[in-house]
Amino acid sequence: MAVRIAQCTIDVEDLDLMVSFWSAALGYEIERGDDGSAKLWPPGQPSASSPSFWLQGSGTAKRGKNRLHLDLVADGDPQAEVRRLVELGARHVDVGQSGTEQFTVLADPEGNEFCVLDSAPTR
């Protein structure tokens, strides 16, 4: 037996800001809760392997470097995707990269680090 990732949950301080960023970044559909949270769903009829995102209002700012982060892969040119994400509100961050990595490290508008990979992982 094994488990799979069904959902990614992010504690957020500014729900509206983060819903705007992550729904545009991922192209996901928004379902707002009445409890200060929002669910982001993959568009159309997602497969069981497409995780949803739950943005959970925490009312507190992020502290320190993430211990777990997302690695995203672009449908097209990864550097064009990095530029698009920066235009949406992401920023470049330095977490100790050497400059020869096959990914770009960004942070969302609240400082949560994530990477845009140059290509999808392979075995």
Topology:
Blueprint: E1 7-12, H1 15-26, E2 29-32, E3 37-41, E4 52-57, E5 70-73, H2 78-88, E6 91-92, E7 103-107, E8 113-117
Parallel strand pairs: 1-4, 5-8
Antiparallel strand pairs: 2-3, 3-4, 6-7, 7-8
Overview of the structural elements:
With 123 residues, the protein is an alpha/beta fold. It folds into two domains: 1-59, 2,3-Dihydroxybiphenyl 1,2-Dioxygenase, domain 1 (Roll); 69-123, Roll (2,3-Dihydroxybiphenyl 1,2-Dioxygenase, domain 1). Helices cover 19% and strands 30% of the residues. The chain has helices at 15-26, 78-88; strands at residues 7-12, 29-32, 37-41, 52-57, 70-73, 91-92, 103-107, 113-117. The chain has a four-stranded mixed beta sheet, covered by helices on one side. A four-stranded mixed beta sheet has the order 5-8-7-6, with helices on one face. A hairpin with a 5-residue loop joins strand 7 and strand 8 (113-117). The longest helix has 12 residues, at 15-26. The model has no long low-confidence stretch (mean pLDDT 93).
